[in-house]
Amino acid sequence: IGDSEGEIHGIEQGSAVKGFSSRTAWTIRTHGPVTASPAAVRGANIVYVACEDTILYRINVIQGSVYWRYHSGLKLTAKPILVSDRETQRTCVFLGTREGKTVVVRDEDKDGAVEAWHAPADARDPSRWPELTDMLFVGGAQYDANLLEKERTLAYLVHADGSVSARTVGPGRELWRFSVPNLAAAAANTEGALVY
Q1: What does the mean pLDDT of the chain come to?
Q2: Which of 19, 33, 39, 134 is the most exposed place for a label (fewest CB within 10 A)?
Q3: pLDDT at position 53, please?
């Protein structure tokens, strides 16, 4: 759990036997507010935390230690979205920024993270960016950042300029972009080859 003072907290909860108490298991200090929810890889004891200090933290939740830090250079304000890239067998982390840019980094495990690709910022109100993360659809369904899936190959992004695009998850190649006059929807869905 992050806070506005720039700390990430791991909280250990007690059981019925212990009276449902809780305590701080660990705290990690950052250099800026943590306003986004973390994204966890279930069963792997790993959580990714995006921070307004421009850093993505990969944390071991059992030990409360930082595996690595990725310096994006942009204020990270949205919950990371995790997708496994079939080509590289690595986790790709989609990051939403206050500046409106989508950045995708590839987790290289102990070697840290590298930028896989990015989508430039559209002309939009930066204060709206956190809600724009709801516009990311991967492989035909809105992606649940709490579940790491292995069969996703495309990301569908709805842009503020009134267009929808399809990109490959790993390399981020834009396969197509379609302009929709007077676009008002905040999301795209797919069914087979149909995007609606």
Answers
A1: 75
A2: 19
A3: 94
Question: What element of type H or E holds 131?
Answer: helix 129-132
CA–CA distances in Å: residue 61 to residues 1, 70, 80, 164: 11, 17, 16, 36
**Contact partners, residue 160, CB within 8 Å, separation at least 6:** 100, 122, 123, 124, 132
pLDDT of residue 99: 74
Between strands 90-96 and 81-85, the pairing is: antiparallel
- Give burial (CB, 10 Å; 0-12/13-18/19+) of 191: exposed
Name the pLDDT band for 120 (thresholds 50, 70, 90).
Answer: low
Residue 16 has pLDDT above 50, yes or no: yes
Q: Which tokens sit at 18?
A: 């212990």
CA triplet 150, 155, 156: central angle to 5 degrees?
145
| Greatest Cα pair distance in the chain | 60
What is the H or E stretch that residue 108 is in?
A: none
| Tokens standing for residue 115 | 């930028």
Whole-number Å distance between alpha carbons of 192 and 29: 45
Per-residue pLDDT for 116 more than 70? Answer: yes
Q: What is the pLDDT of residues 24-70, one digit of tens each?
A: 889 999 999 998 889 888 788 999 999 999 999 999 999 999 999 99
- Using an 8 Å Cβ cutoff, are 92 and 103 in contact? no
